[in-house]
């Protein structure tokens, strides 16, 4: 590119960013309250939130928001874009995944970096390359799949680059899974670094046994996935991770809570004052395990994810937990493998790449399942889809609220508009959609990402490579006051911290001999 063309593009980009946006006549919904106000956006930030605002600059673009809710863009705390997994690479990358997200009202997500051959820094380099295609804001969590001095040192490097969360897999034996000993070491390191430890909680040893039993019994299809990893294994691992986090004095974040069993472990721990966060996902609150028994193998395989999608009773318990506050937020675990990729497990359910879609659907599905059913208010909706993630990952109030000075990530939501979901019209690179035919009331009609109108009346206006990494600083709110609590459950200072003097064993033996 010549210097002149490059400069012209830069000027154009600057001019585009400089156009004010004025959202008129809507109802602003934040996690704490909703109120009538206009919103003026300038240079990627929210400038004013007040009634009866007028354009302050010529060329201001005005959006009519009468009858609409004006809410913070969604933050999906759990995605896997272009992730290499089970011999495949997830088919949504940072471009198609972001297109899908923006069309569904999500303006930021946090993706999991996987180490390359257990090497954290090599994984980081890999994800930097993937993110070159980005079109919206994103953050990173880092997975830890082994333990050594090098890993402990690299965690610090990764944290200094803007990552405040490390994930440990308690399942996927022989691949990503860590032992309890490794998890414990990781929990301790997280506490030192001021980073949040995250767990995929399933008992990986028991899952491997369950899979073998089911397969040997002749069940080779997708239903074998649900049969082989019951909710008890999710509950056990969740309880174990929480107890180990208590032991190490580290806050904990349980990803994709799929069952009542796991949810109740989180709820009980929170009740006794443990700093644990429970994240559920869109598929868990809206889908049910019967889909894995679909007579069409390709349909059934779409629903294979781990932990598995459970029965309706579990979904109901998870929704109640979100309403009651036992669970704090909803992600997606968006990890998509198309029907050709899923086919690798045609004759053995254990080989079906695990993962479902949701990045584009999450906001609509949560609204439908929880607000339209009367379980959450619009403010609660904002909390579980955006604000809680911003707070937990320490980027609030930059994200997760409509307020002066915050990033202008905003959606206009028409609560009366009815629509349905279909693979033919979605924006993901997937050829299927687990929400196919799902009917909804309430639709994101406009998405504003850093002040740019990127989704409006059914059209995307996005540019590859314009995405931005959002660093998540360590020592977030979950670490507040932690220094005043015991550093470890093994409290050697109890009863004075001095070893009890009991005399010599020889003396005791002599005394016994005399009797
Ligand atoms: O099935 C799933 N969840 N796939 C993505 C990897 C993970 O466990 O989060
Ligand atoms: Zn997981
Ligand atoms: Zn995941």
In short:
The chain has 515 residues and is α/β, with parallel strands linked by helices. It has helices at residues 3-18, 96-103, 120-130, 149-160, 180-193, 204-216, 223-228, 231-248, 260-271, 282-286, 297-302, 312-324, 339-342, 362-371, 378-392, 505-514; strands at residues 21-24, 27-29, 34-36, 38-42, 45-50, 61-64, 69-72, 74-79, 84-85, 88-89, 106-113, 137-143, 165-169, 196-200, 252-254, 276-281, 329-331, 410-420, 439-449, 452-456, 459-460, 468-469.
Please explain how this structure is put together:
Residues 1-18 form the signal peptide. It is an enzyme of class 3 (hydrolase). With 515 residues, the protein is an alpha/beta fold. The chain has helices at 3-18, 96-103, 120-130, 149-160, 180-193, 204-216, 223-228, 231-248, 260-271, 282-286, 297-302, 312-324, 339-342, 362-371, 378-392, 505-514, and strands at residues 21-24, 27-29, 34-36, 38-42, 45-50, 61-64, 69-72, 74-79, 84-85, 88-89, 106-113, 137-143, 165-169, 196-200, 252-254, 276-281, 329-331, 410-420, 439-449, 452-456, 459-460, 468-469. The strands form 4 sheets. Strands 8, 11, 12, 13, 14, 15, 16, 17 and 22 form a 9-stranded parallel beta sheet that branches. A 7-stranded mixed beta sheet has the order 3-2-7-18-19-20-21. The protein has a 4-stranded mixed beta sheet with strand order 5-4-1-6, with no helix packed on it. It is globular and about 105 Å long. The model is unreliable at 1-17 (pLDDT under 50). The chain binds N-(aminocarbonyl)-beta-alanine and zinc ion (ZN) (2 copies). N-(aminocarbonyl)-beta-alanine binds at residues 80, 200, 305-306, 333, 335, 354-355.
């Amino acid at each position: 590119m010549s210097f002149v063309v490059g400069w012209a593009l830069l000027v154009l980009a600057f001019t585009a960013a400089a156009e004010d946006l004025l959202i008129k006549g809507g109802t602003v919904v934040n996690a704490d309250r909703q109120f009538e106000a206009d919103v003026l956006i300038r240079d990627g930030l929210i400038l004013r939130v007040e009634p009866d605002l007028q354009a302050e600059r010529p060329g201001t673009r005005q959006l009519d928001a009468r009858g609409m809710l004006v809410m913070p863009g969604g933050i999906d705390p759990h995605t896997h874009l272009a992730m290499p997994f089970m011999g495949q690479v997830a088919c949504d990358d940072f471009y198609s995944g972001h297109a899908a997200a923006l069309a569904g009202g999500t303006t930021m997500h946090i993706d999991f970096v996987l180490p390359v051959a257990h090497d954290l820094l090599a994984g980081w380099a890999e994800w930097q390359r993937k993110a070159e295609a980005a079109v919206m804001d994103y953050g990173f969590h880092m997975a830890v799949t082994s333990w050594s001095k090098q890993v402990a040192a690299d965690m610090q490097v990764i944290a200094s680059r803007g990552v405040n969360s490390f994930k440990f897999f308690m399942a996927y034996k022989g691949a990503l899974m860590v032992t309890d000993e490794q998890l414990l070491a990781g929990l301790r390191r997280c506490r030192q670094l001021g980073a949040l430890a995250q767990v995929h909680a399933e008992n990986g040893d028991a899952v491997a046994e369950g899979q073998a039993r089911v397969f040997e019994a002749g069940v080779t299809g997708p239903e074998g996935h649900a049969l082989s990893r019951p909710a008890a294994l999710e509950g056990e691992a969740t309880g174990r991770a929480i107890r180990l986090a208590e032991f190490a004095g580290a806050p904990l974040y349980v990803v994709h809570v799929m069952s009542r069993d796991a949810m109740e472990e989180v709820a009980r721990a929170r009740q006794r004052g443990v700093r644990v966060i429970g994240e559920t996902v869109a598929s868990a609150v809206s889908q049910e395990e019967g889909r894995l028994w679909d007579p069409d193998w390709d349909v059934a395989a779409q629903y294979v994810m781990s932990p598995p999608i459970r029965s309706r009773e579990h979904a109901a318990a998870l929704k109640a937990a979100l309403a009651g506050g036992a669970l704090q937020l909803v992600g997606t675990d968006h990890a998509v493998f198309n029907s050709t990729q899923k086919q690798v497990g045609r004759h053995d359910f254990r080989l079906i790449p695990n993962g479902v879609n949701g990045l584009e659907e999450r906001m609509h599905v949560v609204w439908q399942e929880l607000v339209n059913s009367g379980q959450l208010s619009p403010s609660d909706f904002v909390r579980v889809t955006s604000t809680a993630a911003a707070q937990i990952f320490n980027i609030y109030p930059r994200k997760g609220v409509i307020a002066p000075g915050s990033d202008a990530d905003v959606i206009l939501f028409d609560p009366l508009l009815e629509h349905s979901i279909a693979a033919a019209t979605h924006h993901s690179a997937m050829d299927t959609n687990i929400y196919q035919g799902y009917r909804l009331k309430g639709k994101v009609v406009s998405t504003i990402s850093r002040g740019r109108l990127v989704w409006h009346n059914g059209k995307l206006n996005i540019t590859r490579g314009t995405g931005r990494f959002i660093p998540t600083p360590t020592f977030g709110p979950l670490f507040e006051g932690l220094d005043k609590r015991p550093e470890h459950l093994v409290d050697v200072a109890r009863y004075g911290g001095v070893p009890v003097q009991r005399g010599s064993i020889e003396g005791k033996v002599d005394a016994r001999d005399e009797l």
